[in-house]
What we know:
Elements: H1 2-48, H2 52-63, H3 66-69, H4 73-82, H5 87-101
Amino acid sequence: MAERVEEAKEKKAAQKVATEAKDAERKARHQELADKTRDHFLVKSNLENDNKEAAIQNALKFLQHPMMMQSPDEQKLMFLVSKGFDEAAAKEALIRAREAAA
């Protein structure tokens, strides 16, 4: 009888840990989606409001981060396009970032 009680407690504890892990994963995915949506909205609104320069300046801040400077240009371009930049604006930002680094 005591063994069954102990097994039930262990099972319940394992379920709690699994539930907490799923909740944490769900929250992380939700936050990531919220961040992407926010970034996309900000970039898109700048580009749509003829504020292309502000959007490019924002991209330059990102591109000049030390971790991003080590990434290949293709990856940077794909990221900027995923955030709402058209390819021409993304390439312009990459060119400016290279010039600033030189």
